[in-house]
Amino acid sequence: MAVIKTLTVALAASLTFGTAAFAQEFTARLSLDVQEGNPKYVAAENFANAVSEATDGAVKFQLFANGLLGGEVESAEGMRLGSVQAGIITSSVFATWIPEVQVLDLPFLFRDDAHAAAANAVLTERLASKFEEQGFHLLGFSINGARQPMSTFPVDAPSDVAGKKIRVIQSPIHIALWEAVGARPVPIPASEVYNAMQTGVVDMFDNTATNYLTFRFYEVAPHYTDLRHVYAMGSWVVAKSWWDSLPGEYQQSITKAATEVQAEAGPLLAEVDAASLAETEKLGATLHVVSDKQPWIELMEPVLAKFAPQIPGAEETIGAIKAIE
């Protein structure tokens, strides 16, 4: 009888443990460098809600806006260390670990917003294993925004920027692409852009439409030009250690939710960008659209030709992107 009792207790304990394991909740801290209401935040919020609904609340993504968990570099490092579980982080941040992502900084890689959005599947397929090797699980990409010239003077043709001092991010590619059109690149941290423009250290810089309004850049750069020479892409990543702890069915739910929300992110961003630019016009900004991009493309083509061979797998990735109709 003692043996039967022991077996009964063990079986009950096993069933209880199994039920608890199945009912286990998985919570992830998702880091964002933008404020609430920003299109990237809204996309992350839609994603978190979709995942919670698909898993009956078993998987929860807690959103931390305004860089509360650190900047983008710190958040990426946090995922490798386990202090952060997820984020939508600008792709160039990962270049230290995954040099293949530098392909996204090449000029005129995408024809337009729709082409950039359509490249998600190709980029994810080609880069997922590279992220995995470095401790990240890649869920895909979405557009953070297209980089646009913002200046103290009108910009249409490359000759308009010849000799002008332009603030650039600290990237050899970005320095080279502006040198190619005759400008004088000056690497300056993002936090110092407004003051650099205000004091005349630089004459122009490039950034995204939403930031033109949000950071009041129109005050120091009253001319905004639609050029879209480089797209800033957001990498949707989760810590591999956290991802590996999830049951397969939850992984499938997360992947599905991410893919669906990423498809919606582009139109949402376009809508917010349009509203932001309209508001800057009311505040005195002048908006320009480049009448002919071909001169820009031709002058920046050597930059692509120079740097692509230096980026692992870039030529194949570029070919796959160009083939997207």
UniProtKB/TrEMBL annotation:
Domain of life: Bacteria
Signal peptide residues on this chain, from the entry's feature table: 1-23
Coiled coil spans: none
Sorted UniProt keywords: Periplasm, Signal, Transport
Main location: periplasm
InterPro entries named in the record: DctP_fam, TRAP_DctP, TRAP_DctP_sf
Subcellular location: Periplasm
UniProt similarity note: Belongs to the bacterial solute-binding protein 7 family.
Name used for this protein in its record: TRAP transporter substrate-binding protein
